[in-house]
Amino acid sequence: MKKPLTQLAAVAAAAALALTAAPASAAPSTVWTVSPSPGGITAVNSGNAVLMIELVQGNGIAVTCSRTALSGGLRNATGNPATVGAVDTFSLGAPGTPCTSVLGRVTFAPAALPWPVVAEDHHASTGTTKGHLAGVDLQGTVGACVFRVRGRLPLSYTNATGRLTLASATGDLTVVSQTGCGAAAPVGAGLIVRADHLVRATGTALAPTIVGSRP
């Protein structure tokens, strides 16, 4: 059944209106305002950190850490991407509460610090900034196995709660060397990390804020 010309015209007009009303893609932020700036930060885990030494995509050796923490500082910055701070200390596990796996206790220690905090995208509606920790360099030890991981660790930070989510995917963190590990952590294997932290401005109970804008 054919539609009357008036109905077709109305449909076309509505479609045109929808196209013109569709919001354009937001321009990337180039001005990053941090409060306090410069200011120190400390963070402790919210729930367990879950890691996997990924031997085959989606399959590997699971590691659980019940204590994690980090500290560093944040500051105003410009550009995109922009370095808005740095992590100066980072720990997975703690004395008396090491990370555990089916292979036994696993310890992790930074092989090199600091790690720059890089901001890439800001969502004003949720107050969330996305980016990554750059230059991540970790050494893991389980029994006689010692391996070194390098790469970047994607992050998401929410101003309202101070929640910092660290979540890597395949290809972000890679085993670059190992001794005594055999097939448990071969060179080229990935390290998948999922860890949530609550960040506070040093010496306070307040969450710092990161806001990206474009003048």
Order of helices and strands: HEEEEEEEEEEEEEEEE
User: Helix proportion of residues, in percent?
Assistant: under 10%
Strand content: over 45%
Spatial separation of the terminal alpha carbons: 53 Å
Counting helices, strands and paired strands, the structural category is: mainly beta
What does this structure look like?
With 215 residues, the chain is mainly beta. It has one domain (31-213). It is 8% helix and 58% strand. The protein has one helix and 16 strands. The strands form two sheets. Strands 2, 3, 4, 5, 7, 8, 9, 10, 11, 12, 13, 14 and 15 form a 13-stranded antiparallel beta sheet that branches. Strands 6-1-16 form a three-stranded antiparallel beta sheet, with no helix packed on it. Strand 8 (99-101) and strand 9 form a beta hairpin.
Itemize the secondary structure elements and their pairings.
Layout: H1 5-21, E1 31-35, E2 39-45, E3 49-56, E4 59-65, E5 68-74, E6 77-78, E7 82-92, E8 99-101, E9 104-110, E10 115-123, E11 128-142, E12 145-158, E13 163-167, E14 173-179, E15 190-201, E16 209-213
Antiparallel strand pairs: 1-6, 1-16, 2-5, 2-15, 3-4, 3-15, 4-8, 5-7, 7-10, 8-9, 9-11, 10-11, 11-12, 12-13, 12-14, 13-15
